[in-house]
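hey m, so remember when u said the tokens were messed up on ur end? i reran from scratch. heres the input so u can diff it against urs
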Amino acid sequence: MSRPLLVQERRERAAPLLYFYSSVFWLIVGAAAGALLAFAAVNPFLLQGTPLTYGRLQPAYTGILIFGWLSMALMGFALYVTPRLTRVPLRHEGLARAGAWLQNVAVAAGSLGVLGGSTTGRMYAEWVPPVAILWLLGLVAAGYALLANMRERDGDELDVSLWYFGGAVIWMVALQLFGGGLGSRTAAAGGFGDALLNWFYARGLFGLWLGMMALGVVYFLAPRLVGRPVYSLRLAALAFWGMAALYPVTGSHLMAEPVPAWMRQAAVVLGLLLVVPVWALFTNLFRTVEGQWGRLWGSPAGRFLALGLVLTFCLWVKTVVQLVPAVSEALQFTYWSAAYDQLALLGAFTFVAFAGVYEAVPRLTGRSWVSDSLTGLHFWLSAVGVVLMATALARAGLVQGGGWAAGMAFDRVLEAVRPHLVTGAWAALLVILGQLAFAYNLVKTATSDRSVTPAPDLPGLPGEAT
């Protein structure tokens, strides 16, 4: 290979690797903050005498996971696969790298700002407007590089995964502009209207951004790891458009809110309609890997992907259960909601992102993972920790909801949930230990000798560049 081609290839690898390395840094910071929060929930005096408070650390932790770890890891994978699927070298690679640095600066500034009390007070959109705009500019830069490749693709058809990556970028730009804290709490709408706008933003953030990006990873990896094409493009299209149309306007958050009755009823009906695209999604994916679960489980990326699919299914079941008005009214303001967030952010989305990192890094660096033992340790510590944490928080929420419904005194409810919070704290410790093993393995792999045998590439599907 000539020197110009080698230089071009290295530059194409630089952008996704920068996103991956940055995301893992923020994962460690976020996991450490989560462990501190979990122990602070058990011992409220843990943070006393420090500049940190629970009310500031919690939104900072959530922002780091969403905008630092998950967003950057999933974007890194999108930048890795798009040139392969379009059979065109990555366009505007420098712009994509600039986007990564803008987002790194935004995550750091936003987190420090929230810890210092500078916040909009809007859920999942806590960052002040200048910081939110900076992160959005980073997204636009990387998103433009992705969409430019799709526009200039060699061929007419787009892989299913590119539907999700392209759609997610466009929707997230719109979400950030209209609901992502780019003004004060009353800039877009006042009072009740702003609360509804924030609800729409939160639903879109989980469904149209993180959810769609994660499904892009799934639709790329699942067929290639098992060596067969996607079962049905029609089901894929039904899931894509159905979720895009219905997910942002559903949700249990409205059940116990002071909103008109018709709005709550509409959220329930639309939520039940959402079962159709979700059924199409899981039918398509499970039929794609049917009879090949052992093969999927046999690779590190496949193992994380398989558990990510299971956790995603659990997340959807939990979403549907919460649409029952009686359930939502009893559990909305309890630890049940925290369990939902952890199941989504540290469970379903994170395990899919792990699958992407484990599959892409060896191909981008030309080095196999240094330690299979560390990979296994990472998987089991993370899996046990996340499942245990989500279960403990869900049980704490059930105890809270049941105790309040029965008229129990506040202090008695606190005593009843404390054992579950202790379990959740130890589970958070398992999670951070798992991420330290992951980060150490990544650093050793990235800095290992070139003599390490590179992993074989994934088999391509018919008509795909390899």
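this time it looks ok to me. The first helix runs from residue 3 to 42. if urs says something different then somethings off w ur setup not the seq
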